[in-house]
Amino acid sequence: KFSAAAEAYSEAINEERDSAPLYQNRALCYQKLERWEEAAQDASRAIELSPDSVKAHYIRATASAHLDNLDLAEESYRRALQLSHTESAAYQDSIQRGLYSVLEKRQDVARRREDEEVADSVRIVDEMLQEANNREAVMVGPEEAQNNHSTRRARVHELEERIKLVGQRPDVPEALCCSITFEMMKEPVMTPSGTSFERDAIEQHIRQNGAWDPVSRQPLTLAQLRPNNALKQVIQDFLAKNPW
Predict the structure, then answer these.
(1) Cα maximum dimension of the chain
(2) How far apart are CA 96 and CA 78, in angstroms?
(3) In terms of C-beta density within 10 A (0-12 exposed, 13-18 middle, 19 or more buried), how is residue 151 classed?
(4) Do 185 and 231 contact (CB within 8 A), yes or no?
(5) What's the confidence (pLDDT) of residue 169?
(6) Are 202 and 210 contacting, i.e. CB atoms less than 8 angstroms apart?
(7) CA-to-CA distance for 73 and 12, rounded, in angstroms?
(8) Which residue, among 100, 70, 85, has the nearest Cα to 191 in the 3D structure?
(9) Band of the pLDDT at 115, cuts 50, 70, 90?
């Protein structure tokens, strides 16, 4: 049915080429069909025509994530979150979950890149050690040179293992930390602007400094704070995988 709906929207777009809702709805159909390139293109066109469309940003973010365009995915998720203050809590949570999945994927990519860089460095050192061993064998004999080579290689292997152990404990992602305390949040709450804070920290800020958001500078009251359950779950998952 989504294919038929997409065709119907295409016919409507031929008649009305500057309608943001038509592009947005066709993008949603493409998303359901997992036609990610087309979904991203239509969502981008909808955003051109209606820059404050939460759904268009959300669709583009989802499609970009599937296309491994993590920069655009993160940008679009964050913009959708900023615009989602009038949406339901469940809808905001789904945007949050999408954003954190992108941040986790980005961290995995960075970790794999670091592993590859370590492996490349070890290969280079191995080659240098082997060249040194060949030269040394001529000077002191093959047996002594091989013993020295084995000792040096063992030290390199020990260093490689230490580097791997350090890499197994990732840095806490910035998105999991409060912008006031700079520590990982335990009870995150979200403001209408889409920013999350540790509950105690933002409540203390409002009481002591006034009713305004310290990041967006927009008016903010205690009644506007909403528990960020999606982020809390992400933090719990992170701690389960990386015991602190």
Answers:
(1) 86
(2) 8
(3) exposed
(4) yes
(5) 58
(6) no
(7) 28
(8) 85
(9) confident
Q: Based on the number of CB atoms within 10 Å of its own CB, is 15 exposed (0-12), middle (13-18) or buried (19 or more)? A: exposed
Which whole number is the average pLDDT over 35-48?
A: 97
Q: Please tell me the distance from the alpha carbon of residue 176 to that of residue 188, in angstroms, as a whole number.
A: 9
pLDDT score of 157 more than 90? no
Residue 85 and residue 141: Cα distance in Å, rounded? Answer: 76
Using an 8 Å Cβ cutoff, are 185 and 198 in contact? yes
Beta bridge mates, 189: 197, 227
Per the structure block, which two tokens stand in for 192? Answer: 């209408």
pTM for the structure as a whole = 0.67
| Phi, psi torsion values for 227, nearest 5 degrees | -55, 130
The CA distances from residue 171 to 107, 115, 174, 195, 240, in Å, are 9, 15, 9, 21, 14
Nearest-10 Cα torsion for 116, 118, 123, 124: 120
Tens-place pLDDT, residues 61-98: 999 999 999 999 999 998 998 898 888 888 888 998 89
